[in-house]
Amino acid sequence: MSEIRKLIADLGRVPAELRQELRPAIQAAAQEVLQEARSRSSWSSRIPGATRVAVRFTGRAAGASVVVSAGRAPHGRPYEHLGAGGTFRHPVYGRDTWVTQAARPFLFPAARAKREQVAREIDRAVEQALRRTGWR
What we know:
This protein has 136 residues and is an alpha+beta fold. The chain has a domain at 3-69 and 107-132.
């Protein structure tokens, strides 16, 4: 379990002053995954520009996530295919013609490639912030 999840489990929610201090550090740590995801999706003209880092301090999604805007790149989710290879089907020319297309995962592989490095950086940032506030 990451340090941020332990902190949320202990406190129920992260105090405002800690959130303010942690958000930039977590955002910076997640940039590695963001850049890797953008690199892996460079075959698309819209997906790299539609990706961003989201930082949350609540629930199971505590930490950083790299997300793709469905409005800016609606094809991102089908191509990601939940990180699995394979194919997906979609309609073209209205409703009557369906085609099969190969998936091109980019988010899950990027997260797997940078997971350990980012987790270490986030854990280090949480520990430093907690020490500065006197938390033990």
